[in-house]
Amino acid sequence: MTRDDEAEYREFVTARLDQLRRIAYLLCHDWHGADDLVSTVLLKLFRSWRRVRRAGNVDAYVRAMLTNAWLDERRRPWRREWPEAQLPDTPAPIAEPDGERGVGRLLRELGPRQRAVVVLRFYCDLSVEETAALLGISEGTVKSQSARALDTLRGLAAKAGTGEEAR
Q1: Using one digit for the tens of pLDDT, what is the confidence trace for 112-121?
Q2: Pick from 164, 16, 25: which is nearest to 108 by CA?
Q3: pLDDT by residue (tens digit) across 28-43?
Q4: For residue 136, is it left (φ>0), alpha (ψ between -120 and 50) or beta?
């Protein structure tokens, strides 16, 4: 990679790092996992920056890389770390930005595919066509997954509003 390429890569990452972390958090609901996911994607992006920057929409390409990396990690549970019975320290809990009754808690109740569709469609403001292309699924699947996810979220929000337990 040339110095100009590296400078361009650094500029891109600096401008979008916070947005990528937020998207990753909405997908995995764990700030540490989100940071790991973004790091993985940024390493892959660095390796292929010359090819990626020629893409028509680099932001969409990187969002696709982020979403695919998260889905890939969800499909391969043996690649994740296993929790231990005894932890060396007890860290302070990390508060969600929207609290326990917020959208973040409700999104965790969705399956991975529905969560990815909701985050891409409504947080990243992508069209049905863009979401379908990014996830490699049909537009009809995006629409049906969106509708099912929104119905689920409405039901969970109504239960949370009445004080009932969501599940």
Answers
A1: 999 999 999 9
A2: 25
A3: 888 998 999 999 999 9
A4: left
Burial class of residue 76 (count of CB atoms within 10 Å of its CB; 0-12, 13-18, 19+): exposed
HSE-CB of 97 using CA atoms within 13 angstroms: 6
CA pair distance 21, 39, nearest whole angstrom = 10
Q: Three-state DSSP class for 5?
A: helix
Band of the pLDDT at 133, cuts 50, 70, 90?
Answer: very high
Q: Which of 79, 108, 139 is the last residue of a domain?
A: 79
Q: Measured between alpha carbons, how far is residue 161 from residues 23, 31, 106, 154, 157 in Å?
A: 26, 26, 12, 10, 6
Q: Is 166 helix (H, G, I), strand (E, B) or coil?
A: coil
Name the domain count of the chain.
2
Same domain, residue pair 126 and 158: yes
- What is the reported pLDDT for 52? 87
* Closest of 70, 165, 158 to residue 112, by C-alpha: 70
Please name the amino acid found at residue 20: L
Do 1 and 9 contact (CB within 8 A), yes or no?
Answer: yes
The pair of structure tokens assigned to 86 is 């005894």
